[in-house]
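P.,

For your records, the input lines for the assembly:
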Amino acid sequence: MPAERLLPSTEAEDLVSLAREIAREELAPLAAEYEEQSRFPREQFRLLGKSGLLGLPYPERWGGGDVPYEVYLQVLEEIATAWMSVGVGLSVHTMSCYALAHYGTDEQRDKWLPAMLGGDLLGAYALSEPHAGSDAAALSTRAVHSGDEYVINGTKAWITHGGEADFYTTMVRTSPDGGKGITCLLVDAETEGLSAAEPEKKMGMTASTTAQMIFDDARVPVERRIGDEGQGLRIALESLASGRLGIAACAVGLAQAALDEAVAYAKERTQFGRPIIDFQGVEFMLADMAAAVESARATYLDAARRRDRGMPFARQAAIAKLIATDNAMKVTTDAVQILGGAGYTRDFPVERYMREAKVPQIFEGTNQIQRLVIARELRKSS
Amino acid sequence: MTNIVVLVKQVPDTYSERKLSDSDFTLDRESADAVLDEINERAVEEALKITEAGEGEVTVLAVGPDRATDAIRKALSMGAHKAVHVSDPALHGSDVIATAKVIAAAIRRLDSVDLIIAGNASSDGGSGGVPAILAELLGMPQLTHARSVTVEGGTIKVDRETADEGVTHLEAQLPAVVSVTEKINEPRYPSFKGIMAAKKKPVETLTVADLGVDASEVGLDNAWSKVLEAAPKPPREAGQKIEDSGDGGVKIAEFLAAQKLI
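Structure tokens returned:
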């Protein structure tokens, strides 16, 4: 059963219908096969781009859709319901455009943003390093100012779309000054000295390529610096606050898919002469799963509406990410339980959903870091 | 310059459960998600292709309740230029003849229509009769079951394909009525830009009286056919299992032959 939504306008309804249609016709039928083969769905991202879905929450002036987060996130959720790897990819692409859209000069935005939002290009976001994950301010990839270029050396880790992306929004160290020594660069994928390592062999989301990106004397023109030197960590954390909402929406989509599968199975499967949904042990599990999905949706939408009104939303975004991804882990695990032995086989999608649900608890700020963010906000309040 | 009218219909989504209403056995349009019929998306696509290759305007025409505006907007967001929506409670339960009369009256009001494109049959309570009846009422040639359409100057050529008769090549002078099959094309998706543009496109809403059609010619009471009884489809029965003891292949072939599948 598709999620029931309250949307603010007819255009928003039509946009979500379009996303649902593309998800159902073009994404869902391919997901299992591509995941099995670890095949990156580049063509499907092009279709999303052609349909105008790769720049939704950014200004129309640069080719974006100018839609509020409340609407963009529900589009994202529909895509993730059909195929988590594509949903997360869309979220990461959108996050990778944040730095230029919010911190670039008009000249920079005129030059690069239309192509990034226009649908042909795919973005990546490069903050983490092998030794700088949760402690992002410890990153050590060096960028040395030389003439009108930066010369970059170092390794970025866990890069979604690593080797597939057309541009990398990259945080580099321009001075030894801890969190204040970090700078944001918009790195073109064709940059000489930039290469991708072998993709990681992951537990799930295998169609989404994740790889280290290696900078070996890579030269990036100074005109591709976004914001000032030293402003990078702030840009990175702001991007993540919005990106977190995207991950929350994806997690809700994934949980919705697992719930739908479990309900359908429980209605069909009979034991002791009755469909198993008629047993209280099963129906209560399904009811709890529905409650988990819908409360997580309400949580991310509340945070999104705050963001759309220009209100602070860091705490709400962290709560949404924490709740939505923990709930998705629980719901997908329970979906496997409801399908029983069938659920444990690759003939049904729920074991894949369960594997896919694990990483959202880890990336874009582990759920332990989310708690840290929430607690910090609590401490700040009087 | 080819001005095209595309007939579109809002139907219950084939993914959702569809049923007839208990009171009068007409289609229960409230119980299911409603969408633009897929065959109509193909009809819109064909019209857009023709006008994009040359010139002209695409008008979508729908007869249906108020809620059919959603299906009209979908066609407009794909790229159609304007719409006419005939909506009138008196139309409830109309048969194909009444429906075709209303459509004909709506088309006669439009200026310079060169081509009318419809789906060959709708996926809901469809008889597949509207395109042919409409052509008769308008005195236009009918080219039905088209799997390909070419318009050159004032001439239209169509490859007509049916299961029984194979492929026939048809040619007619415009204006004409064409109905297309699902082989005609792959319809485009709307884009977000198309969705935003659609809300500014003109939609004219008309009643039966606006069209000068007599209310006694339409609706369930005046239909030439009546549904007297309806029952839900029986649940699917368990399939037939064939044990392979050396002759499994033969048994499967026999089964398929009995079903007239081979």
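Two observations worth noting. Chain B is about 25% helix and 25% strand. The two ends of chain B are 47 Å apart (CA to CA).

Regards
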